[in-house]
Amino acid sequence: MVMTVDKRGQRDKAKQTGALLRQYRERLGLTQHEAEKLTGVRREYIGSIETGRIAIIYPEPFNALRKVYGFPGWEILEAMGYETDAAGAAPQGQADVVRLATMISLLSPADRQVIEEMVHAMRKRSRGSGQNE
User: Which band of pLDDT confidence, cut at 50, 70 and 90, is reported for residue 11?
Assistant: First the structure.
C-alpha cells in the first residue's frame, strides 16, 4: 500500500496557520522585526510561517510566539491540522467564554481596562448593591 500526502491540503493548512499568526502579530501592532526582538524567533522564520512556507512550527519558536502574541496554543495546533479537544472539552457556553477571553487578551491594555471596568459595573448592578468588590 502506498501512502500519499495531500500536498494541497498541507499547503492550505500552512497558509491558514500563517495568516492566523500574522493577524495576532498585527493586532499587537508589531512588525516582524519587532516580533523577532520580543520572541527571539528570527524574522525570516516568522515570515516563512506567515507566508505558509513552513507547515509545522517547532516547539521552541511556537512557545516563544505564543507567549508574546498571547494566542491559545490549541487554535494554532488545529490550524496546522492537529486534533485537539479544546472545543469539545468545554461545556456549552464555556467555549464562548474562552473565545471572548482570547479576543480580550488581544486588546491593548487601555481597552482591556475599559472592559474590566464595564464588567465590574455590571457585577455591581446585578448584585443590586453599591459595595465594592
Answer: confident
CA 93, chain centre distance (Å):
19
Residue ranges with strand state E in the chain = none
Which pTM was predicted?
0.59
Claim to verify: residue 105 and residue 79 sit in the same structural domain:
no
Residue numbers of the domain that contains 15: 1-88
Tell me how far apart the alpha carbons of residues 18 and 132 are, in angstroms, rounded to a whole number: 44
Q: What is the rounded CA–CA span in Å between residue 120 and residue 116?
A: 6
Contact status, residue 102 vs residue 71, Cβ threshold 8 Å = yes
CATH code of the domain in which 19 resides: 1.10.260.40
Residue 67 and residue 100 in one domain: no
**Separation of first and last alpha carbons in the chain:** 65
* Whether the Cβ atoms of residue 79 and residue 50 lie closer than 8 Å to each other: no
Number of domains in the chain: 2
